[in-house]
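Ops channel
N.P.: pipeline sanity check, posting one input/output pair.
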């Protein structure tokens, strides 16, 4: 009888432990929308693997803002590369203009980069990025506009530099001032990021990076104990190839004392760019030498690891000859 009681006691303890572990798993992982169709195989994503600098301790993750209110179907209205640079203790954000003319593998067409996501989702969008810019991106995070608004609201809004022209394109802005450190809620921040017609696409992508930069700054101001809950909430609003554990691991760099945040944009000032009419469709697009752009992008991401390498970039997939 005594032995049976001990066994029963042990079974009860095991049941409680297993129940707790299951509850913990559901709490942290239950809301994660993991893209199980995404593959990190080099041939499927055109990953550049034959260089020493790409094997360094720098992780590159594509971030896509999808041009839809719900779900992850549509064009990538915003495209960035988030580089977690353990080598130089930096977080880097690189924007690629949505209207950049690129070669889209699999479809075998030359079109605006924004179309790659609508043709083949994140996998084709990442493959297009790697093929045209000689990057080695292997993971992604995608968020639509309503989800992005929720993420901004989770951290209490973002502070931006707001001009009067920009304010006119932000909803519910009658009580907003202009100038530095103007707080926008989620809905306002998304509208601010999407402003297109008052200036250039370079300025537009700078607004997008400004919003993300503020989100990172807000995250850095939190304590380590707050990260698990914040990440869980954010992951419930995103579709990603990463799991909770990977993102929690990456977030630890935010605790580094001297961490710096850097920004970069293509075309920006890094390359010579032309606006022109695309052959065939007649649509306006950004055209620039993608070999020159790759060189500038890789220099930003890898710094001395790239510039001191003997790597020779392949010919450009797109250059000025693509214009009529």
């Amino acid at each position: 009888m005594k032995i049976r009681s001990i066994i029963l006691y042990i079974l009860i303890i095991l049941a409680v432990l297993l129940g707790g572990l299951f509850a913990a798993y559901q709490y942290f992982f239950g809301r994660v929308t993991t893209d199980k169709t995404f593959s990190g195989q080099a041939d499927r994503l055109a990953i550049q693997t034959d260089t020493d600098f790409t094997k360094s301790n720098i992780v590159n993750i594509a971030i896509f803002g999808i041009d839809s209110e719900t779900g992850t179907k549509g064009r990538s209205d915003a495209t960035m590369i988030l580089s977690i640079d353990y080598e130089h203790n930096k977080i880097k954000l690189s924007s690629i203009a949505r209207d950049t003319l690129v070669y889209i593998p699999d479809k075998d067409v030359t079109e605006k980069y924004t179309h790659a996501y609508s043709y083949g989702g994140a996998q084709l969008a990442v493959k297009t990025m790697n093929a045209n810019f000689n990057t080695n991106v292997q993971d992604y995070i995608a968020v639509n506009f309503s989800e992005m608004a929720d993420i901004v609201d989770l951290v209490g809004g973002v502070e931006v530099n707001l001009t009067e022209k920009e304010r006119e394109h932000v909803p519910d802005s009658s009580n907003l001032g202009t100038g530095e450190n103007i707080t926008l809620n989620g809905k306002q921040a998304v509208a601010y990021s999407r402003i297109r017609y008052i200036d250039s696409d370079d300025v537009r992508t700078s607004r997008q990076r400004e919003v993300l930069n503020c989100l990172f700054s807000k995250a850095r101001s939190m304590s380590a104990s707050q990260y698990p809950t914040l990440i869980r909430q954010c992951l419930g609003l995103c579709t990603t190839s990463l799991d909770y554990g990977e993102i929690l691991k990456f977030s630890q760099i935010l605790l580094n004392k001297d961490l710096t945040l850097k920004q970069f944009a293509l075309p920006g000032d890094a390359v010579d760019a032309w606006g022109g009419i695309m052959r065939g469709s007649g649509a306006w697009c950004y055209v620039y030498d993608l070999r020159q752009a790759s060189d500038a992008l890789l220099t930003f991401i890898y710094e001395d690891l790239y510039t001191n390498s003997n790597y020779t970039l392949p010919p450009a997939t797109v250059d000025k000859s693509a214009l009529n």
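N.P.: looks fine end to end. Confidence is low (pLDDT under 50) at residues 16-30.
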